Amino acid sequence: IELANSGAQQLKPYEPGKPIEELERELGLTDIVKLASNENPLGPSHKALHALKHLHELHLYPDGAGFSLKAALAEKLGVQTNQLTLGNGSNDVLDLIARAYLQPGDEAIFSEYAFAVYPLVTLACNARPVAVPSNLYGHDLAAMAEAVTERTRVIFVANPNNPTGTWFNAHALDEFLSRIPERVIVVLDEAYFEYVEESHYPNGVDRLQKYPNLVVTRTFSKIHGLAGLRIGYGVCNPQIADVLNRVRQPFNVNTPAMVAAEAALSDDDHIENSRSENTSGLVQIAEGLQKLHLEQIPSVANFIAFDCGRDAMPVYQGLLREGVIVRPLGGYGMPNFLRVTVGTSRENERFLAALKKVLADG
Ligand code: PMP
């Protein structure tokens, strides 16, 4: 461990949840509901599953340039293929950006209560993570712009943010972007973009022409239901895409992922059903939490963070015993909060009933 760079030494391993089968055995349950990782409760796009069934060329390396998927993405997004970078999940794109632009001692800015991978990729490069205090659990974009120094190379902002579900509007984004010097890369993480139905919610891709230092990241893990395949992408100006392409591992994205992603992209029914199921699920959970007199952070994504009013771990454990897995947010500095992913209406009902029971049991 001493040989690792000092940033890497500071990192704690990311702790993934146990496999459901293992938990079911441990707890003696057979019907655990997992609402912990912001996955799509409707499952994968059916078009994607169909495309995977006809895949016979697994003995060949993938198309390392992602030709076909990039063409489909470029068409859908209204950009050129040379503006796209494919990643093994959008996490991979975040990592590529850090590796390409952060040197030891450089600073990367992100918000308090932001996605755990931003400090991870920053520290792995032995750069300095700068967490700016949040504003009511959302990004304080003015304070983030003010935090820029000579050493700042990258700023990560997520819209909506995970784990809080907060968002900022077009006006706030434009004002922020206009304040950031061009030498600083702004990563606008839109992993939950497709879920948002607010009328003033901005589309980052529309701003790429104006801001050459902007990189928008998106994923197939959420609304497309392909988290297990690991595929996401970045959109930016061709010069940055070229740099990301240089540091990328050859064949970083596998064939099934690209084939499924391309099919999912045109699966309008699955996208629409997922969005509308999520929107009604958000209301169902928000109303349920209100009835239980629990404070929640208003969310536009596919999850809600709520305040247990006390250490959330016993509530988390109680829910687990009832067969419902949620995500405790102690690791994010929110020890009284749990985050629940929006499930199907039956799953949401199960979560709310289990929560009521756990709270009543004290
Ligand atoms: N950004 C945010 C804000 C996320 O919540 C997630 C998933 N938890 C990701 C990026 C990464 O998603 P993936 O690597 O599956 O594309």
Poorly predicted regions are none
Q: Look up the CATH topology of the largest domain.
A: Aspartate Aminotransferase, domain 2
The helical percent reads 25-40%
Q: Could you name the CATH class of the largest domain?
A: Alpha Beta
Largest sheet: 7 strands, mixed
Q: What distance lies between the first and last C-alpha atoms, to the nearest angstrom?
A: 43 Å
Mean pLDDT: 96
Element-level helix/strand string: HHEHHEHEHEHEHEEEHHHEEHEEEH
The proportion of residues in beta strands is 5-15%
Please, what is the CATH homologous superfamily of the largest domain? Type I PLP-dependent aspartate aminotransferase-like (Major domain)
The second-level CATH architecture of the largest domain is 3-Layer(aba) Sandwich
| Class from helix and strand fractions | alpha/beta
Strand order of the largest sheet: 2-8-7-6-5-3-4
Task: Compute the number of helices.
Answer: 13
Tell me the layout of helices and strands.
Blueprint: H1 6-10, H2 20-27, E1 33-34, H3 46-53, H4 67-77, E2 84-87, H5 90-101, E3 107-111, H6 117-124, E4 128-132, H7 141-146, E5 152-158, H8 170-179, E6 185-189, E7 214-219, E8 232-235, H9 238-247, H10 255-265, H11 268-291, E9 295-296, E10 303-307, H12 313-321, E11 324-325, E12 327-328, E13 337-341, H13 345-360
Parallel strand pairs: 1-11, 3-4, 3-5, 5-6, 6-7
Antiparallel strand pairs: 2-8, 7-8, 9-10, 10-13, 12-13
Helix pairs in contact: 3-10, 4-10, 5-6, 11-13
This protein binds 4'-deoxy-4'-aminopyridoxal-5'-phosphate.
